[in-house]
Amino acid sequence: MYHRTSTAGLVGFTFTALAMAIASERLSAAEQASGATEHVEVVGQAASIDQALKEQRSADSIKSVVHADGVAQLPDENVAEAVQRLPGVSVERDQGEGRFVSVRGLGPDLNSVTINGTLVPAPESERRAVALDVLPSELVQSLSVIKTLTPDMDANSLGGTVDVKSLSAFDHKGLFYTGSSEASYDKNTRQTSPKFSGAISDRFSLGDGIDNFGVAAALSWQKRDFGSDNVETGGAWDFEQGSRLEEFEQRDYDIRRERAGGGLNFDYKPDDVSSYYLRTLYSRYKDSETRNAASLAFEDPQAAGELGDAEGERKLKQREETQEIQSYVLGGERMFGLWTLSGQGGYSQSSEDSPGHIAGATFAGIDGFDGGFYGNDKPRPIIGSGFYDPANFSLDKVDWEEQKTTDTEKNLRLDLARDYDLSGYASQVKFGGKVSRREKDNDLDAWVYEDFDDLGFTDEQLNLGQFQKGNVDYRLGRFGPGISADAIKQLLGGLNRDDFFDEQESRVNDFKMSEDINAGYLMNTIDIDDWRFIAGMRYEGTEFEAKGTGATDGVFTDTETRRKYHHWLPGLHARYQLDKNTQVRAAWTKSVVRPTFGQLAPGFVIDDDEATFGNPDLKPLESSNLDLGIEHFMGHAGTVSAFVFYKDIQNFVYNTDLAGTGAWTNFAEAHSYANGDSAKLYGLELAYSQKFDWLPAPWNGLLLGANTTFSRSDAEIEGFDQASGTQRKRSIDLPNQSDTVGNLMLGWENDKLSLRLSANYKSAYLFELASISDRDHDLHVDAQTFVDFSARYSLTKNLQVSLEAQNLTDESYFVYTGHRSYNGQYEEYGPTYKLGLTFTHF
Question: According to the UniProt entry, which residue ranges have a biased composition of type Basic and acidic residues (predicted)?
Answer without folding.
Answer: 311-320
